[in-house]
Design brief:
alpha/beta; Rossmann fold; elongated; about 325 residues; about 35% helix; 5-stranded parallel sheet; 7 strands
């Protein structure tokens, strides 16, 4: 009986403990039932995805007009036409003979001017030079005091075009610079004493009949505008043998020599002077010596000056 009484004294405490245990149990079960299935899994917030095409065509207002302006200005002067500093390979003097006399392509022409006295730099003060990047190199590498209508990649059809601003030249009209094509420039000024023309490299890929017909008409127009001027037609000096093998835009020495023969014939037909600088830079294969050119097509600066020396000794007083 005594032991039962002791237990009876602790009974309220046992009941409280049991009730507490049941309450805690039901609270835990309830929390587990309300918890999401992915609890404990690290997730990232949702991201809105734009399903539209992000590479839309720019509108007129988006175009940078400064880029367009730069595209029609004069070409940059980075073309390798000046003499490189401390990197130019050694070059021997031009050979005494100017190529084999029996070459079927022809190096000399019956109507070409022969060597004469040096007319000096003063001779060119009233001269106009018309040509492409090679003539432009002659201008920039020699500092010759003359008028140059020369542009990189200029071809003979662009002398008359009015829609290609990148091929326009700038002339001074009563103190105001005016951009125009070459034919228009001759309307502003045509009192030149001499005119030198060297064109054809950029046209080697043309139909040759179209080119030579345009060439002849250009000479006739210049003669009409300047009947008292001495007009000099120049042959095209070759490219290197390696460059010729590339046949890039049909620029090959075989085709170039054919052009030279036709140019010489046109000069004779039109009654103008023929100068043959093609004979100046020749190796044993009638190609441009590699040591003369940075790219196989143009000249190092010192050779542009040799070209000018050649013009000075092939002129008519």
């Amino acid at each position: 009986m005594r032991e039962f009484k002791k237990i009876k004294n602790y009974l309220p405490f046992l009941v409280i403990i049991c009730v507490f245990i049941f309450v805690v149990y039901f609270i835990i079960v309830g929390m587990r039932a309300d918890a999401p299935d992915n609890i404990g899994v690290m997730t990232t917030p949702p991201v809105d995805i734009d399903t539209t095409d992000t590479e839309t065509e720019p509108t007129a207002s988006d175009i940078d007009t400064t880029v367009i302006s730069a595209a029609v200005t004069d070409p940059p002067t980075s073309h390798p036409v000046t003499e490189p500093q401390d990197t130019e390979p050694p070059v021997t003097d031009p050979p005494e003979t100017l190529g084999p006399t029996d070459d079927p392509r022809g190096v000399k022409y019956p109507n070409q001017l022969t060597v004469g006295e040096d007319v000096g730099a003063e001779y060119f003060k009233d001269a106009l030079f018309i040509g492409d990047s090679r003539t432009w190199g002659l201008q920039t590498s020699t500092g010759l005091e003359a008028t140059f209508y020369a542009k990189i990649s200029l071809n003979i059809s662009q002398l008359t075009k009015t829609d290609d601003l990148s091929r326009f030249i700038t002339v001074n009209v009563d103190g105001t610079p005016v951009k125009c094509n070459v034919y228009e420039a001759l309307e502003y000024k045509s009192d030149y004493g001499k005119v030198y023309i060297c064109m054809g490299v950029c046209e080697l890929g043309w139909n040759e009949d179209v080119f030579f017909d345009t060439y002849r008409k250009t000479l006739e127009h210049i003669k009409e505008k300047m009947p008292n001027a001495k007009i000099y037609v120049q042959t095209l000096f070759p490219v290197t043998a390696e460059y010729s093998l590339l046949e890039k835009f049909d620029v090959t020495n075989e085709r170039l020599w054919m052009y030279n023969s036709r140019i010489a014939a046109i000069a004779d037909e039109c009654g103008v002077y023929l100068i043959n600088p093609a004979e100046l830079f020749l190796d044993e294969d009638n190609a441009l010596p590699p040591e003369c050119s940075p790219d196989g097509l143009h000249l190092y600066g010192k050779y542009y000056r040799q070209w000018l020396d050649y013009l000075r000794t092939h002129a008519v007083r």
